[in-house]
Every structure is written in structure tokens, then in C-alpha cells.
Design a protein that fits this description.
This protein is α+β, with helices and mostly antiparallel strands. Helices cover 41% and strands 12% of the residues. The longest helix has 14 residues.
Length: 81
């Protein structure tokens, strides 16, 4: 998809896996994401007890009017003050 993944960053991430995740986390995922595979994000959400919301026809980068409206509504429901 044209994204550059720098080798030094990749090596750092592989050498420093997440072992503890103590922050309540919600993830918004687009069903047409071409950067992150569903299996990867769903496994992350399961391992670290994250809420996972999937937007049908959403992409990795939310940018269309419809996607941004969905994102804004998701934020309103997700953010706890």
C-alpha cells in the first residue's frame, strides 16, 4: 500500500514485544484495512482484553465523510470522562 516500514523500527518492535498492557483500550478497525490483517488485530484485542469495533467497508486510514462520521460516533461512545 506504499507505506515504508523502516528496518531499524521493525527490528526494534520484534526485539521488544509487549508483555504488559494495563491501559483500557478500544480499537476501531476497518473491514477493508490493507495494512493490518484482521487476524493480527483480533488476536491483539483478545490477548490484551481490548474492545474491538469493526466498521464495514472502513479502511486503515479513515478519511471519507462516512468513515469520519462513523469514527466520531465511535469516539463519543468510547471515550469515558
Amino acid at each position: 500500500v506504499g507505506q515504508v516500514l523502516y528496518w531499524d523500527y521493525y527490528c526494534h518492535v520484534k526485539s521488544n514485544p509487549i508483555s504488559v498492557w494495563n491501559v483500557p483500550t478500544s480499537v476501531l478497525y476497518g473491514s477493508k484495512d490493507e495494512v493490518t490483517e484482521y487476524d493480527i488485530i483480533s488476536e491483539f484485542a483478545e490477548i490484551f482484553s481490548c474492545d474491538l469495533m469493526i466498521m464495514e467497508n472502513g479502511e486503515h486510514y479513515f478519511h471519507t465523510k462516512e468513515q469520519m462520521e462513523f469514527f466520531n460516533e465511535w469516539l463519543k461512545k468510547t471515550i469515558v470522562y
